[in-house]
From TrEMBL:
The lineage of its organism: Bacteria, Bacillati, Actinomycetota, Actinomycetes, Kitasatosporales. PANTHER family: ATP-BINDING CASSETTE SUB-FAMILY B MEMBER 10, MITOCHONDRIAL, ATP-DEPENDENT PERMEASE MDL1, MITOCHONDRIAL. Residues 338-364 have a biased composition (Low complexity). It holds the Pfam family ABC_tran. It comes from the Bacteria. GO terms for molecular function: ATP binding. This is ABC transporter ATP-binding protein. Keywords: ATP-binding, Membrane, Nucleotide-binding, Transmembrane, Transmembrane helix.
Length: 626
């Protein structure tokens, strides 16, 4: 995750203004609700005026009917205030929950479109906390502080005018705490912003740890690490608790100032007012009304503390939300224009005839301007964006041609960059230099959607989703009709030798993945393979797809795959000779380049590193390369 300390802090108001486009669709309702809330709040200010009339009029005159009338007015005004506040809540509840839902949906859509490099950098818990806690904080801000900072502001202003009009000197006295309160609020805003950012980032860290512990529960239990995990969790939660306590202390400090200073001013007014009533320079009704107005302003004033705190938290949540939303998605600006050469090349259909050539005398260097189709990598260099500056690129000038309909195995030592190379073809990462073409067309010149419909991938780690077996496999189908076709599903399961699914409790309708039945590593791999082949893709990229299978199942899968691969151009990462034999040719990746390409048996004879890799002979790769 990018350092939060480095994140520039912009003023809370400017940050919160970024919510406006999301609030715009519900602005009519929100403004109506705000007006209703202002009316409700002003209604409460009328009650002291009725009290003044009551005390100076019917009570002073002993008019019982008048007292009853006054009491009735107070009751009706109280009722009106309650009803108006109820109406406000009704007006905003539904629209604001839709604002939250829309923002969450937009965040999810953005996460789907962000490049893998982004997801490599950001811990999932930080993203999860933005999609949950932060959005909830934003909704609460739109519902309460945003409305009530306005409502309370208007109410305080109206109340002060009423009090000044009742008695100027008492009114000015009650205003004295305003200046120290403003100073304290300014200091508070700055300090609380820092604490709030720290707390929300720490919530993200806690979420990440919980998520990792749940996903890695087998490793934790297997290595007996539950105590150290619990310790790590306790440390994180203690740190979060410390930050929350700091927030509470800051809030406590501002509340003390906001509560005590106005109370002192009101107390002083009470003493001075009583003396003046005794002197006869102030009517009892005016004093009662003045003090009732001051008390009616009590809540609007003291609520400013936590409304500011909530607003600050919302500003932090908004900044965190837009850190993700402001990241450039992969499909927009980064589609590089195709080079003139690649645009000039005609897209030639995959030709099974050419692919059938069993042994290829390929060289490590492919010519750069060949018009045949298939998959071609030319001078491909790649360095991970977050790799240390002095680290050599993972791929450093890869030239490789997989002919149309051919299957080519890619071998290399662990960490040589095989998985990295496979990820470049569907553009999960962007190459640093060089180019990759499919049937002569630069992959950066075609829309990603089209590219990914043409290239199917089965990764080393066969992730399954919380869905049925059928849904997991059919998500690989490019065609909408195919996604519901049981025949297509049956064929793919057949190729991947995944007949075991029929023995599951509900067959292909059995729920698997996180929320469903747990499958073995080999079963998962076969479903991932079925997902890759289900759409009969033009290009198939398989990252060691059979590593978890026993030799008999592997042989059966290979036999079925041979039929599929006859029409498909395939790049297959392989570690075992049995997987290599599935391919027409094999390429050796070494030192960031393709060191040799050829037939398995031929390379066994002619390339010492390849022989070492395949046989496990006691020869070090460095030595072999020499
Ligand atoms: N997201 C990443 N950020 C930075 N470096 C990475 C990242 N992923 C992989 N690497 C580095 O790139 C190099 C190549 O990794 P890669 O996974 O492509 O190797 P591999 O040949 O597939 O290995 P294996 O056979 O073990 O699967 C390794 O040194 C690895 O540490």
């Amino acid at each position: 995750m990018p350092s939060t300390a480095a994140t520039e802090r912009s003023p809370a108001v400017r940050t919160l203004l970024r919510l406006w486009p999301h609030l715009r669709p519900v602005r009519a309702r929100w403004f109506s609700a705000a007006v209703v809330a202002v009316l409700a709040s002003l209604t409460s200010l009328v009650i002291p005026l009725v009290l003044k009339w009551l005390v100076d009029g019917p009570i002073a005159d002993g008019d019982t009917a008048g007292v009853w009338l006054g009491a009735l007015w107070v009751l009706l005004l109280g009722l009106a205030e309650a009803l108006l506040f109820g109406l406000r809540r009704w007006l905003v509840a539904r629209p604001l929950s839709s604002v939250e839902a829309d923002m969450r949906e937009a965040l999810y859509r953005r996460l789907q479109r962000l490049p893998i490099a982004f997801h490599d950098r950001w811990p999932s818990g930080q993203l999860l906390s933005r999609a949950t806690t932060d959005l909830m904080i934003i909704r609460m801000f739109l519902a309460f502080p945003l409305t009530f900072l306005l409502v309370n502001g208007v109410t305080i202003l109206a109340g002060v005018i009423v009090m000044l009009s009742m008695d100027r000197s008492l009114g000015l006295l009650v205003l004295i705490p305003v200046i120290p309160v403003i100073v304290v609020c300014t200091v508070f805003e700055k300090r609380f912003a820092e604490a709030s950012r720290t707390a929300q980032d720490q919530v993200g860290d806690v979420t990440t740890l919980v998520e990792e512990s749940v996903l890695g529960i087998r490793v934790i239990k297997g290595f007996g690490r539950h105590r150290s995990q619990a310790r790590a969790f306790r440390e994180l939660t203690h740190r979060l608790r410390g930050t929350e306590l700091r927030k509470a202390r800051l809030l406590g400090g501002i509340m003390a100032v906001i509560v005590v200073l106005p109370e002192l001013a009101i107390g002083t007014c009470l003493v001075l007012g009583t003396v003046r009533v005794a002197d006869g320079t102030l009517s009892a009704g005016t004093l009662v009304a003045f003090l009732s107005t001051a008390l009616a302003l009590h809540w609007p004033v003291i609520s400013i503390g936590f409304l500011l705190a909530m607003s600050q938290e919302a500003a932090t949540a908004t900044a965190r939300y837009f850190e993700v939303m402001d990241t450039e998605p992969e499909s927009a600006a980064d589609d590089r224009p195709a080079t003139a050469a690649s645009q000039a090349l005609p897209a030639s259909p995959a030709s099974p005839a050419t692919s059938a050539s069993p042994v290829s005398r390929a060289t490590a260097k492919a010519p750069t301007a060949v018009k045949e189709g298939g998959l071609r990598l030319e001078g491909v260099r790649f360095r991970y964006p977050d790799a240390p500056a002095d680290a050599p690129p993972v791929l450093d000038g890869v030239d490789l041609h997989v002919r149309p309909g051919e299957s080519l195995a890619l071998v290399g030592t662990t960490g040589s960059g095989k998985t990295t190379l496979t990820a470049l073809i569907p553009r999960l990462h962007e190459i640093t230099e060089g180019r990759i073409t499919l049937d002569g067309v630069d992959i950066t010149a075609m829309p990603r959607e089209e590219l990914r419909a043409r290239v199917a991938v089965a990764f080393e780690d066969p992730t399954l989703f919380s869905a049925t077996v059928g849904e997991n496999v059919l998500m690989g189908a490019a065609d909408r009709d195919e996604r519901t076709d049981p025949e297509v599903l049956g064929r793919a399961l057949g190729v991947a030798q995944a007949g075991f699914v029929h023995a599951l409790p509900q067959g292909v309708d059995t729920q698997v993945g996180e929320q469903g039945l747990s499958l073995s590593g080999g079963q998962r791999q076969r479903l991932a393979l079925a997902r890759a082949v289900v759409g009969s893709p033009d290009f198939l990229v398989l990252d060691d797809p059979l590593s978890a299978l026993d030799v008999h199942t592997e042989a059966a899968v290979e036999a079925a795959l041979r039929e599929v691969l006859a029409d498909t151009t395939a790049l297959i990462v392989a570690h075992r000779p049995s997987t290599v034999l599935l391919a027409d040719r094999v390429a050796l990746l070494s030192g960031g380049r393709i060191a040799a390409v050829g037939d398995h048996h031929e390379l066994l004879r002619t390339n010492a590193e390849y022989a070492w890799l395949m046989s496990g002979a006691p020869l070090e790769p460095e030595e072999a390369r020499r």
